[in-house]
Amino acid sequence: MKLTGGHTPWEALYAGTIPQYPRLEADICCDVVVIGSGISGALAAYVLTMQGADVAVLEKKRVGCGSTSANSGLLQFMNDDSLNELIGRFGERKGTGFYRMCANAVNRLAGIAEELPSDVDFRRRSSLYYATIDEDAGMIRNEYDTLIRHGFEVEYWDRDHIKSKFPFSRAAALYTKNDAEVNPYKLALALLSSAAAKGLKVFEHSCAKQVKYSEKGVSVQTVHGSVRADTLIWALGYETQEWKPDKSASLECTYAIMTEPVADLSFWHERALVWESNRPYLYMRTTPDNRIIAGGLDEPVPKNGRPKDRLAGYSQRLINEIRDHFPGLVNLRAEYSWSGLFGFTRDGIPLIGRHPRFPHSYFIEGYGGSGTVYSMIAADLLAQAVSGSEPEELSWFSLTRSFNMQPGFRA
């Protein structure tokens, strides 16, 4: 499965020495083995190692070079699906509980970023979520009322208020506080490096070829060695669909660009993350070195399996979108442009937990636009489960839950 196409920026812009890890060439034992070293696997391995577990990570290529290399690094508590939609789908307790888990996960990521010995470009940001068309203004206002009622920090902005802060305006917007941005590649590398200093064993070029299950645990076979563990965490991201296809999950193709550095971004209010009510939605953010990231234009995976064939045209569309919002950027050029697989579930929340066909195993499938946030939620939930105290909230994300959707929901 090809996860990305084009030229992703994070590894190319990485200024330090990229850590290298050995190939597994022995038979070892541990408490937990994690397959996959992207954001999901790195966060799970980090949290488990810090709570005292003996953990090993198996990566078939190099750490952080799968979907994490295409991650645009927006960290937001609001989701692709609004709080009103989730309350309608799951009820008030679960819908609001999930949004609070997302808000707490952003705060957890902030705390972890402070603990790490290297700068991962974690920056607190606000988010502007605007009505794409005037007809969406009522939905924006209704969402504001619901968020305020449940204690979320958010402001409602009308057309004049938006225009006073940005070079563009829309009929209505929500301005949310305490979101963030991060360099996902730096984050994954730093998590693994920091945990390795505490005993985590990381193996690159160590593809899992076979998994054997017994009453006591699992054995993961690679070409040159094996890992016996009490628990296996599958953190393969979208490649999970090759091992365990989920009827509740769908994969699409998404596109993104990163521009050359911009001399002056003072017109960009608080460097807020910007996104819209349209689906699929456009999003934009800045970087600490004054670049702009924009993405969206999600579509079904091209039949020829080559989304990179569309990159030039879609990159220009994203450049045009940035200029439409910020007209002063007349000489803007994309230095990096890429495509990536993007997954979502039918009910709008990720898949985390056990599966009856895979004993002693947990899956992290953080499908949706807040994948890093979902991975943080998964890491904390699974850390509790592995320690013998499986939290009730883990059942919310069950891989075998019912997906009886109401008419009008995306499927």
Describe the structure.
The protein is α+β, with helices and mostly antiparallel strands and 411 residues long. Helix content is 28%, strand content 28%. Strands 1, 4, 5, 6, 7, 12, 13, 14, 15 and 16 form a ten-stranded mixed beta sheet that branches. Strands 2, 3, 8, 9, 10, 11, 17 and 18 form an eight-stranded mixed beta sheet that branches.
Summarize the structure.
The protein has 411 residues and is α+β, with helices and mostly antiparallel strands.
Number of helices: 10
List low-pLDDT spans.
Answer: 405-411
- Tell me, rounded to a whole number, the average pLDDT: 94
Note the overall shape: globular
SS-based structural class?
A: alpha+beta
| Biggest sheet details | 10 strands, mixed
- Any idea what the radius of gyration is? 21 Å
Helices, strands, pairings?
Layout: E1 4-6, H1 10-13, E2 27-35, H2 39-50, E3 55-58, E4 74-75, H3 83-90, H4 92-115, E5 123-130, H5 137-149, E6 154-158, H6 159-165, E7 172-181, H7 184-196, E8 201-203, E9 210-213, E10 218-221, E11 226-234, H8 240-243, E12 249-259, E13 273-276, E14 283-286, E15 292-300, H9 311-325, E16 334-345, E17 351-355, E18 358-365, H10 371-386
Helix pairs in contact: 2-7, 2-10, 3-4, 4-10
